[in-house]
From TrEMBL:
<dbReference type="GO" id="GO:0004655">
    <property type="term" value="F:porphobilinogen synthase activity"/>
</dbReference>
<dbReference type="GO" id="GO:0005829">
    <property type="term" value="C:cytosol"/>
</dbReference>
<keyword id="KW-0479">Metal-binding</keyword>
<dbReference type="Pfam" id="PF00490">
    <property type="entry name" value="ALAD"/>
</dbReference>
<comment type="function">
    <text>Catalyzes an early step in the biosynthesis of tetrapyrroles. Binds two molecules of 5-aminolevulinate per subunit, each at a distinct site, and catalyzes their condensation to form porphobilinogen.</text>
</comment>
<feature type="binding site">
    <location>
        <position position="232"/>
    </location>
    <ligand>
        <name>Mg(2+)</name>
    </ligand>
</feature>
<feature type="active site" description="Schiff-base intermediate with substrate">
    <location>
        <position position="194"/>
    </location>
</feature>
<keyword id="KW-0862">Zinc</keyword>
<dbReference type="InterPro" id="IPR013785">
    <property type="entry name" value="Aldolase_TIM"/>
</dbReference>
<comment type="similarity">
    <text>Belongs to the ALAD family.</text>
</comment>
<feature type="binding site">
    <location>
        <position position="121"/>
    </location>
    <ligand>
        <name>Zn(2+)</name>
    </ligand>
</feature>
<comment type="subunit">
    <text>Homooctamer.</text>
</comment>
<feature type="binding site">
    <location>
        <position position="129"/>
    </location>
    <ligand>
        <name>Zn(2+)</name>
    </ligand>
</feature>
<keyword id="KW-0627">Porphyrin biosynthesis</keyword>
<dbReference type="InterPro" id="IPR030656">
    <property type="entry name" value="ALAD_AS"/>
</dbReference>
<feature type="binding site">
    <location>
        <position position="273"/>
    </location>
    <ligand>
        <name>5-aminolevulinate 2</name>
    </ligand>
</feature>
<protein>
    <recommendedName>
        <fullName>Delta-aminolevulinic acid dehydratase</fullName>
        <ecNumber>4.2.1.24</ecNumber>
    </recommendedName>
</protein>
Amino acid sequence: MNLINRPRRLRSSQSIRDLVRETNLSAADFVKPLFVVKGENIREEISSMPDNYHLSLDQLLKEVEELIDLGIRAVILFGLPEYKDAEGSSAWQQDGIVQQAVRSLKNNFPELLVITDLCLCQYTDHGHCGILEGGKVKNDATLSRLAKIAISHAEAGADMIAPSDMMDGRVAKIRQALDQNGFTEVGIMAYSAKYHSAFYGPFRDAAHSAPAEGDRSSYQMDPANSDEALKEMKLDIEEGADIIMVKPALSYLDIIQKASLNFNLPIAAYNVSGEYAVVKAAAEKGWIDEKSVALEILISIKRAGADIIITYWADSAARWLND
């Protein structure tokens, strides 16, 4: 007698599907990116990223209170400075917008995990992620500036620094600077495999960080490469990273999986602005259901091996999951 193997038995009801589900999402998985600006009562929607905003400090507090109520316990901050110069010097000022935001958040929500993005692109007048000389980004000259930014963020109360510049040796330089200044408890979430992706456009609009000339292909990774990602992650771990990140997420699920299989460290994945914006645009046209598609994307990122998901859907996804 030939018996039929019946996997459908475990799909026959919502109760059984929930019971045997291999991958689960929760609000605790999410980190919400937030864009802070100086001023008062500013809550300006970012046109290319609907439902995300430029926030002044007073509005930032209101936003974070809502996130905490939804069960989200971590944010990553991006600042838009009042001035830019060739060095990006506003990035390490004690009264810089990110430094002010960190102090305000930690004073009001001490249990919130505050992560700060660390890069020069928003702060330089040329829009590159490092010191520019003769049209080229100078790696070693950039490292000391990154260390200064890290110290200023730590002094403000940041729990974790997230260098996104992709300069060689920056994790070691930042770790050394933090330790020497007494910030041994401040962690590093390294953008370890950050690709030279076409999916960053809406973010550059939001952060006012597009390069004035040229591109970032000499320091961000070639999308064709995967073995190189493992090398970059291994180097960052050796230099002292506490968490390694893959960015973008959706087009790089294979890289997330390789990271999870090769390294015994928490893996973060950045579900980037372009991945978000294309779904929002299609949903606005009525071509897809945003909730279903967004949750499918997020579950795929976690299924690939991500422990942490940085996503512009964090608050929406938390509401959907709570429902």
